[in-house]
Write a structure and sequence with these properties.
Elements (H helix, E strand, L loop, with lengths): L7 E3 L2 E3 L3 E3 L19 H12 L4 E8 L11 E2 L3 H16 L3 E7 L27 E2 L13 E2 L2 H20 L4 E6 L4 H6 L14 H4 L1 H13 L6 E6 L11 H13 L4 E5 L17 H10 L4 E4 L5 H9 L5 E3 L2 H5 L3 H9 L14
Parallel strand pairs: 3-4, 3-13, 4-5, 4-6, 6-9, 7-8, 9-10, 10-11, 11-12, 12-13
Antiparallel strand pairs: 1-2
Helix pairs in contact: 1-2, 3-6, 7-8
Length: 359
């Protein structure tokens, strides 16, 4: 039987296969009013289609722990009970299809308050539902972005509490797995990297200080998240900077520390924290970073990055480079990728009764 379609168990949660969907923002929530940040019909249809298509695990898009933590005014959030109830509709359906529902808890930091990508993605102000972003240091992401407000220590501690509260609500919303977003140049990644963290207090300077906020968030979420449910961490394994950035060596070191703090799997991506860098993209270009973490630590990993072909995905898992693969753009193109790949590789996935004629 195909390795890609073998079940995978973390703590007491069994995921039916190794074909997973990574967080991909839809920028389709209401920007204001009582439904702000809550998933709607588009989100239900979007995630339901991938579950019906056989995807083993779906990680909900970046879901902000506070209003200021959204990437855009149109992002999802999980800071109130109205949002929790809206998520329940989606998680119930995913479970009914045998798919494990997960959520990515996030804070966008200095990259917050931007327009939707198809509208240009530029920063927006109060006249367009925007706000002033915050960050570990008063350093703008690029020339288009405003200089963010440097977070005082008391506000850092409040944000840790917001992650804690978000984890509590995520559990109430029916999610089986939570993921802490520490990648792509958003707030936690900004603290980790010396490229964006210029602080001189307990949250900046040394490696130990720069990782402090991330570990405080992980500890807070882990305390709320039940012992029988897994907790993931998404990381950018490199800033793609030759100097002054977060490195693959840092990632390997940090993976072991995250594992000791209760993280069950590292979701390995790259980049996003430095503008204008050259990234050598190509099929599976980020897989070696995941493979290195898996080889040098005891941390399970998932690989992502231009994984599109069934045989390619099978080899990544069968060769031990990763425990699972996350397909982003390919699942946007083909919601039933898992079913098609199973047919090609001789594996099995859940097929809804209503689609029995397609088997």
């Amino acid at each position: 039987m195909s390795t890609l379609f073998q079940p995978y168990t973390l703590r007491d949660v069994t995921i039916p296969n190794r074909v997973w969907m990574p967080p991909m923002c839809q920028y389709s929530a209401a920007p204001e009013g009582p439904e702000t940040g809550a998933p709607g019909d588009w989100h239900f249809a979007h995630y339901a289609a991938r579950a019906a298509g056989g995807t083993g695990l779906i990680v909900m898009e970046a879901t902000a722990v506070s209003p200021e933590g959204r990437i855009s005014p149109y992002d999802l959030g999980i800071w109130n009970d109205t949002q929790v109830e809206a998520f329940r509709r989606i998680t119930r359906f995913l479970v009914s299809q045998g798919t494990v529902p997960a959520v990515q808890l996030a804070h966008a930091g200095r990259k917050a308050s931007t327009e939707r990508p198809w509208k240009g993605g530029a920063p927006v102000g109060p006249d367009a539902h925007g706000w002033r972003p915050v960050a570990p240091s008063a350093v703008a992401f690029d020339e288009r972005h405003p200089v963010p407000d440097e977070l005082p220590v008391d506000r850092i501690r409040e944000i840790v509490g917001e992650f804690r509260a978000a984890a509590r609500r995520a559990l109430a919303a029916g999610f089986e797995i939570a993921e802490v977003h520490g990648a792509h140049g958003y707030l936690i990644n900004e603290f980790l990297s010396p490229h964006s963290n210029h602080r001189t207090d307990a949250y900046g300077g040394s490696y130990e200080n720069r990782t402090r906020f991330a570990l405080e968030v992980v500890d807070a979420v882990r305390e709320e998240w039940p012992d029988d449910k897994p907790l993931f961490f998404r990381i950018s394994a490199t800033d793609w900077l030759e100097e002054s950035g977060w490195t693959p060596d840092d990632t390997v070191r940090f993976a072991s520390e995250l594992h000791a703090h209760g993280i069950d799997l590292l979701d390995v991506s790259t980049g996003g924290n430095a503008s204008g860098v050259r990234i050598p993209t190509g099929p599976g270009y980020q897989v070696p970073f995941a493979a290195r973490v898996r080889a040098e630590t005891s941390m399970p990993v998932a690989a992502v990055g231009l994984i599109t072909d069934a045989e390619q995905a099978e080899k990544i898992v069968a060769n031990g480079e990763a425990d699972a693969v996350l397909l982003g753009r390919e699942l946007l193109r083909n919601p039933s990728w898992a079913r098609h790949a199973a047919r090609e590789l001789g594996g099995e996935v859940h097929v809804p009764d209503q689609y029995h004629r397609s088997v």
